[in-house]
Structure formats: C-alpha cells, structure tokens
C-alpha cells in the first residue's frame, strides 16, 4: 500500500501544547540511544513517515465474496492498523471489528443473526421499560443505575452535533442502550465512564440495536476496568510501569521520586481507552487501531507509553510553582494535555517503540507477554539491553475516582 499524503496541522507554540517535537522526544529516550541502534535513520523514518491510506469502500468490496462473506480478515486488520477506515465505510467495518458480524458469515447467516439479536435486544429493553415507577424505586441497584445514567447522558459529548441541542432524541437512544445494558449485565450494572465508551459507537453506527451489541462486545474487553477498578488499576499500572522502566529508566525513576510511581494518575487513559485525551474524530482513528489487535491485545499500553514519552521533557523540566508539589504539577499537566496529542504522531511513535522492543533479545520476562510473536531464538544481537531489571511490583494506590 502506498503511503497517503496528509496535511500537516500548524505547529502549536510551546505555551499552547503539552507535547514536544517528536525528534526531541525520541532523542531523549535512553533506550533508543544504545550503541547498536542506528538512531538517525530511525528518527528520519518517524518524522517522514505517514500513516497508510485508509481502507475504502472500493478496497472493501475486493474482499467481499459472492455469498456475502469477507475474505482475508488478517490483511484487512493490517490495513486498518496502518491507515484506519474511511468515514463512509466505518459503520460497516466497525460491525466486524467489534464482533457483531463474523468475517466468515454469509449474507444469509448474517440476516438470521440480525433477526435474533434484534429480538433479544427488544426483550431486554422491554424488561425495564415496562417497570412501574414504584418497581424501579424498590429495585435499588437499577434505580441507582438509572439515576446515574440520566445524569451522565445529558453531559456526554454534547458539543458534538449528534448530541447537541435541547430535546435531542439521540440522547434518549444513548440512555436506552445504557439502561438495557444494565439488564444485559446485572453484575456490572452501570459505572461512570461507560457513556463515554458508547457515545462514539452510537455516533458512527447511528443504529440503536447495532450500537448496543457493539458496545456490549467492547465492554466485554473493558469489563474488568469498571468491575473492580482498584485491583485492575494496580495490574494495568504495573504493566505500564514495567514498559517505561525498560524503555526509559531515568524517567521512571523521576516519576517514582516524585510520588507518581504508582502511575494511577495515568489510569484515565486506559480506563476508557483515551476517549478524553483526543478529539472525537481522532478517538475513532485510535480505537480502530486498538480493535485490530494487529500487533498485540495490549497495544493500549504502547499508546499510553507514546503519549507519556511525548510529555517527558516538559514533565522533567517543569518549573515548580511554589504552591504545588511536583506531583500536583504532573497531575495538572496530564489533565491539561487532553486534546493536545496528535493521533498520527502518537500512533507512529507507539509502533516504532513496539518494533524496536520486539527486536531486542533478552526482553525482561515481565514484558514478554506484551509481544505475542516474540521469540528469543529468532533474534540476533540487534541491540544491547541492560538485563539487570527488577521492577518493584508492590506499590499501593488509592481507590480511583473518575473525574
């Protein structure tokens, strides 16, 4: 696939952005400065590289068979990983990426499946719609979920045209899907942040039943994020910390020294897959990459690593304001950086980091699971790695409250 030519947005001034020039970011990472890395070509390739051409309707039709099935899904995922999907094709492709449709199903099989899923959804929706107000009030878990959903839906992505304005019926659909999901997953119920996950899906699909099932499948992957926030926080942040300590020990040490080594201040990134860190249009691009699982199911960790390294210089060279601690300043930087990240830059840096790491022998055992295709036997002495790696695993975090 040829590389697409992309318009480059005007650069922001240092005062306007929380992220740094990519060359500065990469040249400051000790992992990339090891003698056996040829750094200059690497920097040039990242600066000059563009993301691939998005999967188009014409491309898609080449993969469609006469019976309605879709061939070569792994290659389709690769195209999407490299370049995304065109907006006109996105509603169709998302049904596959979110496991509503199977690539191998024929048109007839999909039609039967659609009918079954439509009936199943309508039954669950009718279960709560037919409850009386008295029944709802006597069902404390559902009453609580309904109350929180009502508050969340009226403030979810209201700046987007799809949800803007008074008496917008799309907000009613958003609420109906979330309430029906409570009936679908009684154990989880509703947790703040789930409306952020559903919103882009509903915007793209613009179809209540399809959006519900795609949301339900996505929530299967994110279920533990919402079901047991504190324990999952520890696990995810340990993984994140292990990656950073391997790539950039000095930066990791700096964060530890300033009480951010628990990394819980970055958890919002992973909790809702960066939904609040990018513009909504960029979130669509980023989520498509994650859903392909082209390189690893844990690719969100590499996205987070890319984002944090883009902030590295600003964090380490901060001017401490007297009334705030370094921790407070870093926390403020993380919040202020929302919306400043360039999605293409972030994705390209994440891919470079992944590629360079998987081509290193003797990866620490703690991070090998993030690289499904990693085998030491097939790798040569492509780089020199410090194997004296002993991350401190037992750190404590406070219970996370979604802001």
Can you characterise this structure?
The chain is an all-alpha fold and 403 residues long. The chain has 19 helices and no strands. It has helices spanning 22-27, 39-48, 57-63, 73-83, 90-97, 107-129, 133-138, 140-153, 169-184, 194-205, 208-227, 229-247, 249-257, 267-271, 280-292, 299-310, 312-316, 326-336, 343-358. The chain is globular and about 60 Å long. It starts with 21 loop residues before the first helix and ends in a 45-residue tail after the last helix. The relative contact order is 0.12. The model is unreliable at 1-18, 34-40 and 376-403 (pLDDT under 50).
Please supply descriptive tags for the structure shown above.
single chain; 403 residues; mainly alpha; 0% strand; disordered N terminus
The largest pleated sheet is described as:
none
Structural class call reads mainly alpha
Backbone shape: globular
User: How many helix segments?
Assistant: 19
Got a strand count?
0
Low-confidence parts lasting 5 or more residues at pLDDT below 50?
A: 1-18, 34-40, 376-403
Span from first to last CA?
41 Å
Beta strand %: under 5%
Topology readout:
Elements: H1 22-27, H2 39-48, H3 57-63, H4 73-83, H5 90-97, H6 107-129, H7 133-138, H8 140-153, H9 169-184, H10 194-205, H11 208-227, H12 229-247, H13 249-257, H14 267-271, H15 280-292, H16 299-310, H17 312-316, H18 326-336, H19 343-358
Helix pairs in contact: 4-15, 6-9, 6-11, 8-9, 9-11, 10-11, 12-13, 12-16, 16-19
Provide a compact summary of the structure.
This protein has 403 residues and is mostly helical.
